[in-house]
């Protein structure tokens, strides 16, 4: 049973689904940026409420400046987890930090989803210990959005770096969780899942990938997704998949490689266009289109690494996110919170685990699970 | 002893350093493209000679069309390794294939470096069995060039996919081989080497990375390179390193992710600029600058994955390379062949291995090795 089920009655859960818990501290740009993002978000979502966590004396003036005091509750927390703190050091700082306080608010059922710009490792450790792993999940994962040629503009990739390794069973769990996230976060009824490898032929790759390849194929029907098999690094932005499954080491390197390549190219594009008067004029004429392109691949629009496999949902917003980026993470959080995402995901994983225990003859009739997740 | 040392006298080696061995078959665009690339290359290198391998009846007319018959020798080979052949199947086709014949010409000392556009897996298997691994190398690697902010425009990354795993000793060997390649292929006297990981702190990453981190740091002085420690995916195009060391699984995913990201962005840029008349005009005005940018990140300019750790050098040209791409791979091959690269690399690896056997007190005085490699 999830702790949401044990700790709260249905009315409370319903109420809390409109409430987000936000750690105002720990981002590179400080609490003023987080509160500005909060204000943007609240402006577009009239029913939403937020609990913010941090030093009250610092937060109060920021919040009254934006005139959002009636929809924001402050939970005073004096300490801050620093970006440079090792996860265990951060954990020992414990209950007095804004990060801990933000996690506690979803643990108690007061809010539905927790959002923080802080230290990823510390947030994952604290969340895992305080919220605990969903039954059937051995390694929680971080899911990120990857700019793609799909109509939504994005694919889901996991694990983006929660854990440095994953065995075949973890990869299967990632496929189930990633499909559930694509359904609830990107509105894709039957997501197409691919497993990242160094080639698409069945004989390619490490031993655990070959086993995972079969496990995920067998789980596709009961998990309500299509499995497209092995994919390669060049397929990450492809429109033939929606969800990319990989271990956290490979996923983290791929994510940062993609970001690094994009930033190299835009730097080179900029300096190419500034090279002579003719191309400066050209760039001026094309600036509307170039701005649209920049927006299309803007990392702020894809802000929000979602921790999957815990009893409640936690979203890591980018440390250097500005107000637009923070608002994007809050929109995602609100959407997932209102849809009851963490319970749906838990039901998906539990149903796959029970199907596996029942043996293969039950897999084909596993349509029961379709009622548990949209 | 390398087979070059056993099979040939010094006069012959000298003669062969001007000769390349080229597999004309197996590329996606056929032998006409390879011969066109050959002609480009020979036009710029008046002392170079080439042995081409493939069906004589098909190659002869192509070569006389380009009027390069006096500097090209044809080795007739009736069979072709297909892109879809599994490596073992290709190997069993054996001696009648153009790929095998191209490798034999460097094995016998008739040519200095072998170049093929064919099937990578087959080329690696055939090369490893026929040319054998350099003493002290357990896993040969493929080194590729990565567009970067460095003055040369490129960094070296290895392994780009020769092997799906690498232990700490392999990673140390990759560091030595990559540094030697950067010195000889990119003219960098004292290359800066980084080890790819999911963070830059010493406690990050898998166990073998932590051990490799120490091994490579200890080998830096005797290997004549600087070790910058762990780097992340975002650092691949960085100007703080010249050589990126990683296992072939991660390297292959990173390489293809970078290519995929670059191709998504140029696609989006193109469609953004074609969106309205104003930006079409802008793009026309800036087209000189945009063309220069395209050239800067053109994969054809970085054509040539170099197999490191065999007794002779083999270069894999991209299967879809056009004449410009083939010529780029031949230029690289010629440069490495003339510099006696494979012997220098072998001496580097052997010297590191003997230093390790002699124990740490010899590492600091290991300046002997500087005579073996430029």
UniProtKB/TrEMBL annotation, chains A, B:
GO molecular function: phosphate:acyl-[acyl carrier protein] acyltransferase activity
Enzyme class (EC, first level): transferase
Keyword check for Transferase: yes
Its EC number(s): 2.3.1.274
Signal peptide region: none
Gene3D superfamilies: Isopropylmalate Dehydrogenase
Pathway recorded for this protein: Lipid metabolism; phospholipid metabolism
InterPro entries: FA_synthesis (IPR003664), Phospholipid_synth_PlsX-like (IPR012281)
The organism's place on the tree of life at top rank: Bacteria
Pfam annotation, one family: FA_synthesis
Keywords for this protein: Acyltransferase, Cytoplasm, Lipid biosynthesis, Lipid metabolism, Phospholipid biosynthesis, Phospholipid metabolism, Transferase
Known catalytic reactions: a fatty acyl-[ACP] + phosphate = an acyl phosphate + holo-[ACP]
Subcellular location(s) per record: Cytoplasm
Keyword Lipid metabolism: yes
Biological role: Catalyzes the reversible formation of acyl-phosphate (acyl-PO(4)) from acyl-[acyl-carrier-protein] (acyl-ACP). This enzyme utilizes acyl-ACP as fatty acyl donor, but not acyl-CoA.
Family: Belongs to the PlsX family.
HAMAP family per the UniProt record, alphabetical: PlsX (MF_00019)
Assembly and binders: Homodimer. Probably interacts with PlsY.
Name this polypeptide is given: Phosphate acyltransferase
């Amino acid at each position: 049973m999830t702790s949401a089920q044990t700790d709260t009655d249905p009315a409370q859960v319903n109420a809390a689904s409109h409430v987000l818990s936000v750690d105002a501290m720990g981002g590179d740009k400080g609490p003023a940026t987080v509160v500005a993002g909060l204000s943007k978000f609240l402006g577009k979502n009239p029913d939403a409420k937020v609990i913010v966590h941090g030093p009250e004396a610092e937060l109060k003036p920021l919040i009254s400046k934006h005139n959002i005091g009636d929809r924001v509750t402050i939970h005073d927390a004096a300490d801050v987890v620093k970006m440079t703190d090792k996860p265990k050091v951060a954990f020992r700082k414990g209950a007095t930090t804004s990060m801990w306080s933000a996690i506690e608010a979803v643990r108690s059922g007061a809010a539905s989803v927790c959002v923080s710009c802080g230290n990823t490792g510390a947030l994952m450790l604290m969340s895992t210990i305080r919220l605990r792993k969903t039954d059937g999940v051995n390694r929680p994962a971080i899911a990120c959005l990857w700019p793609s040629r799909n109509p939504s503009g994005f694919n889901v990739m996991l694990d983006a770096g929660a854990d440095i390794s994953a065995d075949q069973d973890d990869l299967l769990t990632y496929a189930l969780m990633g499909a559930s996230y694509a359904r609830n976060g990107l509105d894709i009824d039957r997501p197409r899942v691919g497993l990242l490898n160094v080639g698409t032929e069945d004989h390619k790759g490490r031993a655990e990938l070959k086993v995972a390849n079969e496990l995920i194929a067998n789980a596709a029907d009961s998990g309500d997704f299509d499995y497209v098999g092995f994919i390669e690094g060049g397929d990450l932005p492809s429109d033939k998949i929606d969800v990319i499954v990989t271990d956290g080491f490979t996923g983290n390197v791929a994510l940062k490689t993609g970001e690094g390549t994009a930033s190299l190219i835009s730097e080179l594009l900029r300096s190419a266009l500034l090279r002579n008067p003719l191309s400066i004029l050209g760039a001026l004429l094309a600036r509307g289109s170039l701005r649209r392109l920049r927006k299309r691949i803007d990392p702020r629009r894809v802000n929000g690494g979602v921790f999957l496999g815990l009893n409640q949902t936690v979203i890591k917003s980018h440390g250097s996110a500005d107000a637009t980026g923070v608002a994007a993470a809050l929109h995602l959080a609100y959407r997932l919170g209102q849809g009851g995402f963490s319970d749906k995901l838990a039901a998906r994983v539990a149903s796959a685990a029970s199907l596996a225990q029942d043996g293969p003859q039950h897999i084909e009739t596993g349509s029961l699970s379709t009622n548990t997740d949209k």
